[in-house]
Design brief:
With about 190 residues, chain A is of the alpha/beta class. Chain A has five helices and eleven strands, in the order αβββαβαββββαβαββ. In chain A, helix 2 crosses helix 3.
Amino acid sequence: MELLEKRILADGKVLPGGILKVDGFLNHQIDTGLLYEMALELHRLFGGEGVNKILTIEASGIAIAAMTGYVFSCPLVFAKKSKTSNISSSLYSAEVESFTHGNVNTVVVSREYLRPTDRVLIVDDFLATGAALVGLKALCDQAGATVVGAGIAIEKVFQGGGDALRAQGVRVESLAKIAEMSDDSLRFC
Amino acid sequence: MELLEKRILADGKVLPGGILKVDGFLNHQIDTGLLYEMALELHRLFGGEGVNKILTIEASGIAIAAMTGYVFSCPLVFAKKSKTSNISSSLYSAEVESFTHGNVNTVVVSREYLRPTDRVLIVDDFLATGAALVGLKALCDQAGATVVGAGIAIEKVFQGGGDALRAQGVRVESLAKIAEMSDDSLRFC
């Protein structure tokens, strides 16, 4: 998606350690007009798939997922980071390792809000190692819900998570795909 | 706002300890159509105030704030819960006590994204003791930004946070105001 790629080149910052900082328009301050354009693009890609639920993970995925839900006319569910490892029987749960924060979170969704009849589009701002997507897919699998695919704003292709999921048959569509990043530059696929 | 009040009566659950559970449509699973109607109502209330930034706090405020930013055609900034008490000089920070979780979080916003020229509408899903609003207002005060007001989905008026802020001159508009809650019922103002 050219609009997003241009914005990354204009306002993104490449930091040491494979970090792309897009705090100015995607995950701290958020450009809501860009958000809407990204949601429209996800609808162009997945609009024919009978999606009836958007699933994301707190916190930075919520904004794009909310706008995507609005464009798809369906609800959004966000998986919550659990404060406790003592998971209630009313919840589905999965472990998710955070690339950015270097820790492992247990994420949960209430069983009420993921159903076997659901056709779920997973949405997130970033895809790197794929840990968040694997966790969100595990929640859907526990519920017996169908994962229609994953719609991602920015995929760091060189970290391999997206292609690992594609190899498992998950349809992963990323609006900007970064092939490589060096200390002060990046290249799209 | 009648639409929201009706939804609370239909799908909200009053739990012991003054908890109103609206997980089914506002802060776990989110009705994105309702989100849009709430954003329109906030625009009706604050649309003439020259708002150029929406400020909220992660995580459950992000969805309504994102939609509000879209309707106001302005960016959203969400304050992040800090993983560390060692705050960088590039951040504004404030302490926020969580009524729901019974702990205190340090919340931060990058100095880049709150400016003295900003006219800020603070948006959140809930207003109870007002701790989150006080913290978000403190961030704006540190930046020298103008707080135009606060737009809230559900205010639990009996917890006093909203009126304390109004007494300080903050314009607080809540789309549903709950006067009292007992074990299995609630009454709106």
